Amino acid sequence: MHEPQHGPDRRTFLRATAVTGAALTFGGLSAPSASAAPGGFPDYTYLRTLLTPSQLRYNPTGEIIFPTVRGVYDKLADPLGRYYLYYAPHDAPGGVCLAYGDSLEGPFTEYPANPIVSNRWDPHYSVSHVSSPHVMWNADAKEFWLYFHGENTTTRLARSKNGVDFTYDRTVLTTAMLPAGTTETSYARVFRHDLPARGARYVMLFMVNNTTNHRDIGWGWSADGRAWTFAQTPLVRHSDVGAVNIGGPHLLTRGGSAFVVYNKDKGSGGDVMITEVGADFSLRRHLGVFYDSRGTAPDNGRSASPAFGTDGGVPYMVYEAGDRLAGSIAVARGR
After folding, report:
1. Contacts (Cβ under 8 Å, ≥6 apart) of 335
2. In angstroms, rounded to a whole number, what is the distance separating the alpha carbons of residues 125 and 145?
3. Which residues contact 265 (CB under 8 A, 6 or more apart)?
4. How far is CA 174 from the centre of its chain?
5. Sequential pLDDT tens for the chain (335 residues)
6. What pairing do the DSSP bridges indicate for beta strands 229-230 and 216-222?
7. How far is Cα 206 from Cα 249, in angstroms, rounded to an integer?
8. How far apart are CA 93 and CA 261, in angstroms?
9. Residue 58 CA from chain centroid, whole number
10. Which is nearest to 307 in space by CA: 217, 184, 142, 190?
């Protein structure tokens, strides 16, 4: 296993070897390259806050987490806006929510009938909370596929033609699918990514916890996005990057390789980190800080759960800003 890379020499090397003008792929979206951040990805700079709990009509707990943004202008005949932004409170009762807007820089308008998925869905489940919505556009099915957790032991799938009205599909991940002693399998994101040797076309990244109470990044693969096989050891361990906990993983691809970006807990620095895993997920090259959380508002020393998109060829990162369960949804612009 490759050890984490530190110091200015490594970053200078990455800057020097990045290929200016190459294509970046952010979970299926492409953007122009900027030779700056580890792996040759753009440097992102905080732009503004997009959603604050106190300004939302549906605000049962005073907190929101885990944004996912999707361009829908090329998928729907009459969308509410060019972009759909999904998010949720975490604490009970949670609830998957939607906002929409015409620019990734905002503003976003809260959907008036939130939550679009609640913690009770007869006859499928009745749980304390549902949260961490990740919506993937499934081009094969021409549907929006929503992965979400509730409880923290279970990840579920729902499907929609319009990105608003969802039909329940199935459970896709539980702690029972991981080694004995696993206590949490949640905060999952799914991406279209071919792994020919495994007969897979989709990859899932998620947070996994066990009785040691240190959170790592787990992963799995699937031919259809519904039936999954899961690695029984973490993809990235908290100890690999000097953290107590890591989570909020997202897949980026560039130059024929794959990278996982994820956040550290605030006590371990609160930054977004990046690890190169290679096109076949056999590599472990820890490249360091991807996005340095600011000490000022709204980050207040913690940036988490990044999601990515492009608007007019400009790359953006939408993320949790601030203390866990006390933050907002913010956007940073790449250059």
Report:
1. 34, 36, 42, 43, 45
2. 18
3. 215, 243, 244, 245, 246, 302, 324
4. 19
5. 222 333 333 333 333 333 323 333 444 433 333 346 799 999 999 999 999 999 999 999 999 999 999 999 999 999 999 999 999 999 999 999 999 999 999 999 999 999 999 999 999 999 999 999 999 999 999 999 999 999 999 999 999 999 999 999 999 999 999 999 999 999 999 999 999 999 999 999 999 999 999 999 999 999 999 999 999 999 999 999 999 999 999 999 999 999 999 999 999 999 999 999 999 999 999 999 999 999 999 999 999 999 999 999 999 999 999 999 899 999 999 99
6. antiparallel
7. 6
8. 28
9. 22
10. 190
Tell me the two tokens of residue 282.
């056999």
pTM to 2 decimals?
0.90
Q: Are the beta carbons of 2 and 286 closer than 8 angstroms?
A: yes
Report how far apart, in Å, the C-alpha atoms of 217 and of each of 59, 169, 171, 286 are: 29, 25, 19, 13
Q: Which residue has the tokens 């690695």?
A: 231
